[in-house]
Design goal:
Helix content: 25-40%
Structural class: alpha+beta
Order of helices and strands: EEHHEEEHEHEE
Shape: globular
Strand order of the largest sheet: 1-2-3-4-5-6-8-7
Number of strands: 8
């Protein structure tokens, strides 16, 4: 099945702003490293903290190229007036036994929370996934104490499939991680 979703595309947010949704390019690598390190300082719910996104420029460029060259992976960026306002990655293995399962991560800077950017990224990622003809399941990991995200994922139909005990450690406290999944076929 051929994917009929093409990027870039422009969408209008609830507040009337124009949002450009496009695939990440190799030239975005330096900008993305900076972005991830800045956004990581805004929440405790990412797998890394401020300044801990330690990819080199070459590593990030290779990651972006790997996404572009795989039929079951996508790396989407959301931009408001050429400023990064969100990113979603869907990563999948190319091994026959696992290529049907994609794991995603999503990041929206605090200044853009509540604008619908996360919903747009999620909707586009899921629609793209369904059209690949390869992906049949989407999974994610979420901290047990990230109640807003868990509720949001449940609205999309994600179900809890497991729990990893003491998966993260922050400010002297251990936190469990939920594994959630969504069958998309």
């Amino acid at each position: 099945m051929e994917n009929t979703i093409h990027y870039p595309k422009t969408l209008i947010l609830r507040n009337g702003e124009s949002l450009v949704l496009r695939e990440a390019k190799k030239e975005d690598a330096a900008r993305l490293i900076k972005y991830y390190n800045e956004v990581a300082g805004e929440t405790d719910f990412l797998s890394f903290g401020a300044g801990e996104f330690n990819k080199s420029l070459e590593e990030e460029e290779k990651i972006i190229e790997d996404y572009k060259n795989a039929p079951n992976r996508i790396f989407l960026l959301a931009e408001l007036q050429n400023e990064l306002a969100g990113a979603i990655t869907l990563d999948a293995n190319m091994k026959t036994r696992h290529k049907h399962v994609g794991e995603f991560g999503i990041v929206v800077p605090k200044q853009h929370w509540g604008k619908g950017i996360g919903r747009i990224l999620m909707d586009n990622m899921l629609e793209w996934s369904r059209q690949t003809g390869i992906l049949r399941k989407i999974v994610l990991k979420v901290s047990i104490n990230n109640h807003l995200a868990i509720d949001w994922y449940k609205k999309y139909g994600f179900e809890t499939e497991g729990r990893i005990r003491r998966d993260s450690y922050l400010n002297g406290q251990f936190f469990d991680t939920l594994i959630m999944g969504l069958l998309i076929d």
